[in-house]
Amino acid sequence: MQGRRWPAIAVQTAGLFAAALAATWTIAHLLSVTVHSPSQLRDVAFGWPIPWYHQDLSRYQPADYPTTVEIVGDRVDPVATSVDWLALVGDVVLTALVLWAIVAALIHLFGPALRRALAERETQQH
């Protein structure tokens, strides 16, 4: 019995969204957030451009405000964390659009040279 093959566009789209999800997660963890008061520590929103990862960092009281904070990933004594799933989907879609545009531009720039190189290699092999 022969297995069903996924169309190339479905595989490419899945890869694009997987890369976008990874980039979205990485961006949320790399960018710090500025907090201006103790009350803002109760719900610090991470993620760019749409904040989607929320943490209650009120147990950490800095000496001065404003201060910058980053996502706390403490597994031993975790902080209250929630995810706004709709905002996450929006961030992933926006990131996927940017990645698609970058890949399309790279293909446009380097595609002809790559096709020529592959054609030359094929003619040399025959």
The largest beta-sheet arranges its strands as 2-3-5
Q: Strand share of the residues? A: 5-15%
Q: Number of helical segments?
A: 2
Q: Rg from C-alpha positions?
A: 22 Å
Largest sheet: 3 strands, antiparallel
Helical content stands at: 40-55%
Instruction: Categorize the overall geometry.
Output: elongated
- What would you call the structural class? mainly alpha
Number of strands: 5
Order of helices and strands: HEEEEEH
The parts where pLDDT drops under 50 for at least 5 residues are none
Distance between the termini: 36 Å
| Average residue pLDDT | 91
Give a description of the structure:
The chain is 51% helix and 12% strand. It is mostly helical. The strands form two sheets. A three-stranded antiparallel sheet has the order 2-3-5. It has a two-stranded antiparallel sheet with strand order 1-4. The protein is elongated and about 70 Å long.
